[in-house]
């Protein structure tokens, strides 16, 4: 089992976090992102989208952090992190789309601009980030977890870039329910941190 | 079973298409999008993200087209449109993320600008759309379907906005493998069209 990884990537961190919660050993392959290793043909053979993370297990090569969470949760986690029943599976799936779209194009984009110099409309990204944080804060106002009354990969998929939002000029002080939820995730057995988490 | 729907929405069309392939009867609830019905409190109670589609079944209320595809496929389609095994499930999941992110922020955004007057950076959206179309064209060059050698909800999730790309000033003439794939989807038993499809 190999994770092609970049330490400051919240998308890579999602996978490290789930593997830590499940107590699974794996090989961490650090990719020289600054040196452009992800732009090489060798990397594109693993992932034509030239993005991290990439996960290899038993001959399978997967791209996309949400897809890798689904794979690891289903293969090694039983029903603990991802339900098999249609309604529970779909409830979790809603937040995997939110992670891939709204969270990525808001808080993640703002951080890519501020921390890594990406050229993008950072004001628009920050507006989106705050809008999404408002929706999360309202949703979490009377819930401990995003769905099903327990921690699932929905929480793991959405948590990193919301907790990293201050690194993109998006303070989260005004979102108490989001901050309490971040605290609950950090208190889960097996939790591992990454640098920059609020 | 109720689908809160907007005819010209590719995201709503995904659900109509899967339900048609499965031969499932449902109630179509047309939402007065131009009149701002999705901005009302009553709509926000169903979907705080105030987006379409919304799907109701048996007391469950789901937002997000990808999540609804997962639900319908798993509950009513057996393994036909979404595998249960971890590797197949995750392979399909990769493309649901691509639909929620790359396809949405490329071809879909360009069409939102041109057809519905959304204020956004249409040149950037068109560049993203062509980049994604190149990746799809390469992937489909030696494959009939996105994954598993058969039609799945991966194809249903990605197909509408790529086939609607010309409505956003993104011609698809230079992507022969994508056009052949669109033709295969259109030839599936039970296929229903929507207006504007290439």
Descriptive account of the structure:
The structure is a homodimer of 198-residue chains. Chain A is α+β, with helices and mostly antiparallel strands and 198 residues long. Chain A folds into 2 domains: 2-76, Glutaredoxin; 86-186, Up-down Bundle (Glutathione S-transferase Yfyf (Class Pi), Chain A, domain 2), CATH 1.20.1050.10. In chain A, 52% of the residues lie in helices and 8% in strands. The first copy, chain A, has a 4-stranded mixed β-sheet, with helices on one face. The two termini of chain A are 30 Å apart. The mean pLDDT of chain A is 96.
> What is CATH's topology name of the largest domain in chain A?
Glutathione S-transferase Yfyf (Class Pi), Chain A, domain 2
Oligomer category: homodimer
How large is the radius of gyration of chain A? 16 Å
* DSSP helical segment count of chain A: 7
The residue-averaged pLDDT of chain A reads: 96
Percentage of residues in helical conformation of chain A? 40-55%
Q: What is the number of E strands of chain A?
A: 4
String of helices and strands of chain A: EHEHEEHHHHH
Q: How far is the N terminus from the C terminus of chain A?
A: 30 Å
What is the highest CATH level, the class of the largest domain in chain A? Mainly Alpha
Supply the number of structural domains of chain A.
2
- Biggest interface, which chains? A-B, 33 and 33 residues
Level-2 CATH architecture of the largest domain in chain A: Up-down Bundle
What would you call the structural class of chain A?
A: alpha+beta
Arrangement of strands in the largest sheet of chain A: 2-1-3-4
Given as residue ranges, the uncertain stretches of chain A (5+ residues, pLDDT < 50) are: none
Strand content range of chain A: 5-15%
Report the biggest beta sheet of chain A as strand number plus sense, adding barrel if it closes: 4 strands, mixed
Dominant shape of chain A: globular
């Amino acid at each position: 089992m190999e994770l092609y990884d970049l330490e400051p990537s919240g998308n890579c961190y999602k996978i490290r976090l789930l593997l830590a919660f499940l107590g699974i050993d794996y090989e961490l392959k650090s990719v020289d992102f600054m040196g452009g290793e992800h732009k090489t043909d060798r990397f594109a053979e693993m992932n034509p989208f030239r993005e991290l993370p990439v996960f290899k297990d038993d001959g399978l090569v997967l791209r996309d952090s949400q897809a890798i969470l689904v794979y690891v949760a289903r293969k090694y986690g039983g029903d603990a992190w991802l339900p098999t029943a249609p309604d529970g599976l779909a409830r979790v799936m809603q937040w995997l789309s939110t992670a891939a779209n709204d969270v990525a194009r808001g808080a993640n984009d703002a951080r890519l601009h501020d921390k890594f110099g990406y050229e993008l409309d950072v004001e628009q990204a920050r507006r989106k980030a705050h809008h999404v944080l408002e929706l999360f804060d309202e949703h979490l106002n009377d819930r401990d977890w995003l769905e099903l009354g327990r921690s699932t990969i929905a929480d793991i998929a959405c948590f990193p870039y919301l907790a990293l939002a201050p690194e993109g000029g998006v303070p989260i002080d005004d979102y108490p329910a989001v901050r309490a939820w971040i605290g609950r995730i950090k208190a889960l057995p097996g939790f591992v941190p990454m640098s920059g988490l609020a």
